[in-house]
Structures are given as structure tokens and as C-alpha cells.
Write a structure and sequence with these properties.
The protein is mainly α. It folds into 2 domains: 18-208, Hypothetical protein af1432 (Orthogonal Bundle); 216-259, no CATH class. It is built from 11 helices and no strands. It has helices at residues 18-28, 36-48, 60-75, 78-90, 97-103, 106-119, 131-143, 148-164, 170-190, 194-208, 210-244. The two termini are 27 Å apart.
Length: 259
């Protein structure tokens, strides 16, 4: 049986290799400078959160680093990325906020404190709500914070949760999926974050309507060969046109994933 691919580099003793993780991020974001804030946050989380896991079994440090990567992809802001790492850990244990200011950065402390306030909001979707009530919840999430990055951290957290809940109780999984479809995906859309909206909708739909999802996925897979053939034909025509006007060029194309 193949072992699942690890999301993060690990050292032989079983700890995440923070230095290698940061080096990989620097390659992806070469224009960003002063990585010490992110390093300090990751090392603090590694030290204080050893052995902690999320309700779906992912180590909290892994979740925090995954959230940080999402934040960097959205904002390229290391303060919010560092705050995301510590927000994951601090859901499970108490660390005085002044320690974050001392060991990491005062701006990270402020963002983590605001994130903790938002974490205290419990959304119960066990009972059906109408569209007006759901919209009020989304507006309340935004109104509760003075820094929009706090909401982005919440969306990053929800994204990691939805990526990781494949093996939890199906009833709980459907509740989380419905909550995601009704609250978080529209919230991402309202903030103009298409990449998060699409991913949340896709995963949530898979758990809410699994049979329909499979049928659509099968239909799209059957049509993929047709899309690839159209791309191949288009490239051939363009190459011929360029050759006729004596332009030497390399062309490539691919069929995009629809799900």
C-alpha cells in the first residue's frame, strides 16, 4: 500500500523541517523579504503545539502552515500568514498573547487576538435557515472585525478543514459542507476571492450531493479527450499560420480541470 504524500518536509526525528519549508516558500515568492516573522511564528507553534491535532486528525502545525500558504497566495502578507499559523494552535491551548508580541511581533499578536474573537462565534446550522438569516450571518462575520485579514484567516482555516474531512463521520461532514456552501463560499465570493470560493463550493458539493458530483465528474472526464483534441487541432493551425509568415515559435496547451 502506498503511503500518502506528505504535505510538508519532515526531519528524520519526526518534526516538520521549518527551514526547508521556508526555503520552498522563498522560491515561490522571491520578491518577499524579511521572513523572520514567519519563521518565529512557525517555531513557536512547533514548540507549543507538539502533539496537537485537529478534530479531523491533521497535526495543528500542519494546518497552521497550510493556512499560512493560503494567506500568502491571497495577500503575500507575512504578518497575516504568521497569525494564521498561531491561530490554529491557539484554538487548542492557551498562550498569553503578550508572549506572541515578545517572541514573534506585536502586529501578529493583534491579528491573533482579533482572530480568537471571531473563533468564539459559533454557527449552528443543525436547523434550516432561510436566505435572509444566512446573509445576516455572513454580514456579521465581516462586521465583527476591523481588519479584513481576520476574515481571510477564517476562510483559510475553512479551506484546510474541507480539504481534510474525507474520513470523518458522514453526518458531521455533510453539516460542515452545508455550512461551507451557505456561509463561507458566498463570503469568499463577496470578498472577491474566486479561488477560495470555487474550491469550497467544489468540495462542499461533493459531500452534499455525492452521487450527482460523481455523475458530473464522469461526464466531464468523458469529454476531456474531445477538449484535448480541439486544443491539438488549434495548435496545429496556429503553427501552420506562423510558419507561413516565417515566425518560429513554440506552442503548448492543455485542457483545464472543470472540478
Amino acid at each position: 500500500m502506498l503511503k500518502p504524500k506528505q504535505k510538508f518536509p519532515y526531519l528524520s526525528e519526526g518534526n516538520i523541517d521549518i527551514d526547508l519549508w521556508l526555503a520552498q516558500l522563498k522560491e515561490r515568492y522571491p520578491n518577499l523579504k524579511e521572513w523572520d516573522i514567519l519563521q518565529k511564528a512557525a517555531l513557536m507553534a512547533q514548540k507549543t503545539g507538539k502533539g496537537l491535532t485537529t478534530f479531523y486528525g491533521q497535526p495543528c502545525l500542519e494546518q497552521g502552515l497550510e493556512m499560512a500558504e493560503i494567506m500568502l497566495s491571497l495577500t503575500q502578507d507575512k504578518v497575516s500568514a504568521a497569525s494564521a499559523i498561531l491561530t490554529s494552535i491557539l484554538q487548542h491551548l492557551h498562550v498569553p498573547l503578550e508572549h506572541i508580541a515578545e517572541e514573534v511581533h506585536p502586529d501578529v499578536e493583534k491579528l491573533v487576538a482579533a482572530s480568537k474573537t471571531l473563533q468564539s462565534l459559533k454557527i449552528n446550522l443543525d436547523k434550516p435557515r432561510d436566505a435572509i438569516q444566512i446573509d445576516r450571518i455572513r454580514k456579521m462575520l465581516i462586521a465583527m472585525v476591523s481588519d479584513i485579514r481576520v476574515v481571510l484567516i477564517k476562510l483559510a482555516e475553512r479551506t484546510t478543514i474541507m480539504r481534510g474531512i474525507r474520513r470523518i463521520n458522514p453526518t458531521q461532514r455533510r453539516l460542515l459542507a452545508r455550512e461551507t456552501m451557505e456561509i463561507y463560499a458566498p463570503l469568499a465570493n463577496r470578498l472577491g476571492i474566486g479561488q477560495i470560493k470555487w474550491e469550497l463550493e467544489d468540495i462542499a458539493f461533493r459531500y452534499i450531493k455525492p452521487e450527482t458530483y460523481k455523475k458530473i465528474a464522469k461526464f466531464l472526464a468523458e469529454r476531456r479527450s474531445d477538449r484535448e483534441q480541439r486544443i491539438h487541432n488549434a495548435i496545429a493551425r496556429i503553427k501552420e499560420g506562423l510558419h507561413n509568415i516565417q515566425i518560429d515559435a513554440k506552442l503548448s496547451g492543455r485542457a483545464k480541470h472543470n472540478l
